[in-house]
Task: inverse folding
């Protein structure tokens, strides 16, 4: 049953349950402080940080962003207890709708190469592998 999922904008009271969800979904890595990531997102396009709840408790998240050229999806998570109910598809679609309303022509995302199940999930949603090299640079924190 998918009707129990309510998708809304992130609220500050969601912080601890969202971080716990990300930890359960193995999205938290040592080099990214999830509370700092939430604070950063809360200051830039906070309307694109979505939380899916069941009975008022966060069970799904996605952070979307749009820089005027490309959209991005980050921190897509669905509680292991709620998988297989289309919650991931629904929260991604909600983010896509918001990005499309901003005029976003393409959405990018990054997946760890070893995470084959997530690659398959996104393929089913119409995403494909781009022939690009993803590069990054850690910036010093002020």
Result:
């Amino acid at each position: 049953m998918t009707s129990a999922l309510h998708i809304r904008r992130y609220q500050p009271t969601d912080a601890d349950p969202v971080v716990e969800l990300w930890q359960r979904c193995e999205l938290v890595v040592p080099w990214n402080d999830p509370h700092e990531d939430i604070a950063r997102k809360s200051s830039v396009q906070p309307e694109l940080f979505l939380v899916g709840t069941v009975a008022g408790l966060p069970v799904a998240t996605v952070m979307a962003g749009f820089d005027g050229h490309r959209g991005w999806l980050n921190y897509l998570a669905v509680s292991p207890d709620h998988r297989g109910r289309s919650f991931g598809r629904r929260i991604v679609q909600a983010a896509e709708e918001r990005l499309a309303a901003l005029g976003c022509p393409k959405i990018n995302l990054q997946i760890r190469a070893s995470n084959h199940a997530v690659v398959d999930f996104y393929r089913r949603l119409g995403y494909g592998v781009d022939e690009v090299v993803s590069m990054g640079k850690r910036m010093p924190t002020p």
